Amino acid sequence: MNPRTTRRAVARRTATALTGFSVALSLAACGVIDDVGATGSSGEPKKGDDLTVGLLLPDKDTARFEKFDYPIIKKEVSSLTHGKGTVRYANAEASKATQSSQFQDMIDAKVDVVLVDAVDAEAIAPDVQKAKDAGIPVIAYDRLAQGPIDAYVSHDNELVGEVQGRAILDALGTKAATSKIVMMNGDPADPNTARFKAGALSELKGKVQIAEQYDTKEWKPEAAAANMKQAIQAVGLNRIAAVYSANDGMAGAVIDTLKAAGVTDLPPVTGQDANLDAVQRIVAGQQYMSVYKSFLLEATNAARMAVTKVQGHDIEFDALTQEKVDSPTRNDIPSLLVPVVALTKDNIEETVIADGVYTVDEICTSAYAADCAAIGLK
Questions:
Q1: pTM score, two decimals?
Q2: pLDDT tier at 373 (50, 70, 90 boundaries)?
Q3: How confident is the model at residue 24 (pLDDT cuts 50, 70, 90)?
Q4: Taking a C-beta distance cutoff of 8 angstroms, is the pair 247, 219 a contact?
């Protein structure tokens, strides 16, 4: 997202994305998509239901990828293709070299379309070009890859940072101006990191004292733990008023490091992804918040975009991608940006439980039963 985009424009863009999704579903329900048949607007024959979607995900440290994204995409592709479509899946386990090799395997296997969540957005560009040269469309998923991608589906990542920054200000209240905070940013190779950071700084800058900032290699919790130890030494254990953590995996490491150092009254710590252990920490009052991004909506849309792209259903594809986003290598990329929600102990029931991400029993294990009862979660 362009840094000069205002919050009003952000809201407008999110509303448009949701409208596009609704329009696409309405078109399908009314039979308009079926009327397009197996040809695109140009009249070229397109692939039928017997298609293969290549799915490249970046790591296994982020719990959502294996537990939610892949299964949802696989199920939706099957549903959209009457059980005939398949997903060829590979996880890079945080290695850009591995992902490049996996991308080449997808090209060699002649998949019909590739959904890629890049480990390194810049490094993946030559692989995207190879796919395009082979006539395989590429859709960037969750992270905006460089190169000649055909479309992009994600969340409003600058808004994610804004939500996290606002949460810290709310937690600190009138003490914000005199409070020192630590920023635990993500991997600089991930283009989303810069957007999260920009959004957070738009809320925090000038309103709190940012004592220390760290980039976290490959989003690894152990790297975040090492950074947090440095922050404690640099700032002082009892002088850290809050920690901006860009995601839940790092938030867990930050909290564990603070507790190991002797903190009993934990400062507010943010997160993102609504991992199960993070939701449990929120219930227990250890983590202040997470950003819930609907995996269902993002993954379902990604599958729909992939299938409609291959099948040439241009009307539905265009309805799904009414937004435009720029990358360093391409402008006006057709995009869909899914909205986000600040997840706190006050809205667990209305978010991850209502959406079927977790059940009450999964959250409220014996270790958290008393905490769940205290907030009325049962």
A1: 0.76
A2: very high
A3: very low
A4: yes
